[in-house]
Amino acid sequence: MTLAPVSFAHAADGSAAGGVPGVGTETQVISGRLETGVADFVYLPLEVPHGVRKIAVSYAYDQPAAPKGTPGNACDIGIFDERGIGLGGSGFRGWSGGSRTSFEIANEAATPGYLPGPVKHGTWHVVLGPYQVAPQGLNYRVEVELTYGGDGPAAQRHYPPRRARGRGRSWYRGDCHLHTVHSDGKRQPAVVAAGARAAGLDFMVSTDHNTSASHGAWGEYAGSDLLIITGEEVTPPRNGHWLALGLPPGEWVDWRYRARDDAFPRFARQVRRGGGIVVPAHMYCAYVASQWKFGFDDADATEVWTGPWTYDDEHAVSTWDQKIGEALRSGGTWVPAMGNSDADSEPQAVGLPHNVVLADDLSTEAVMEGLRAGRSWIRRGRRRQGRRSSATPPSPRRPRSATPGASGPHP
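The structure assignment produced for this chain is given below.
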């Protein structure tokens, strides 16, 4: 749903109304009401003039007491720039879900979860995601402040290398589901990388929700001893979450669709074109939006163990076991299992659980290939201090087939 556009007054020289030429600020407030059953995304168009240095957005919404057993109000937020809001397009500039009440974007810096860069003139869109709307409705208030002036120096992005010092063909340990302050996590990237090292991991994957903003922060925390792989947790509304692992640094995957829209295969193909893999995450998590509804035709693996073991992991393992049986009967391919921590804050532990993957080298490409082929098993905790895992690879290599006698996941 797209609302009427909001314009900002500005002088011919690009200054704010009443401001000093070339500098100053201007604020507009947008308020409205959303009813139960509103569209998944509500777009607020902003006509941004020339000469803007920074855009700052804050928002709030009411949270009336909902009847017992009925969800209360919850509303996410993000923004797209003048390049548009087309599905999978290039206009994405950031998303913080419900983790922040404000954000800023400028050429030299941006709030975590958002992409720095010039604030160019044209139609921008603040996007609201009414995750839940109480029976009483949801009243919102969005405040947009433009700061005028020349752009500052471009922000530096330090992407991690796609290879670390490995041991050749060997078993490598890694956690493929981790969050930072760039989405709903409380940890800085430096703390997550330190946690991966403390857990004795060889690699980790960054999977902040619906944003690639953290990719440019990982370069300084990677090293010869730790491969940091870029990814994203993609969270379509009310239809389940999935991991896009091994994305090219800086690449973003759209999440604005449901299973009924038949868009998921398109974005699964996008991930694979970049060398990555597609993994349904915590399929039976108790949250309202997490139950998996996209099927397994476009899945390269599936997460069956997420964080400390609970009943929903039992259910995920049961589904995985059922899919193996179906593949065996049909002669199709089986879907490998994965285990990850989904850690975002204390006391959640990085690496509990994690994957042990047979890969030709400690590189993004080799690790993704090992996971895709199912040459992996799941471990609960860290390895013993001072020990490095190794293994003699199976020979010959066998395809990921469900025909009798073919290779499968380790128990």
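Interim note for the steering committee: The CA atoms of residues 358 and 394 lie 10 Å apart. Confidence is low (pLDDT under 50) at residues 11-21, 385-411.
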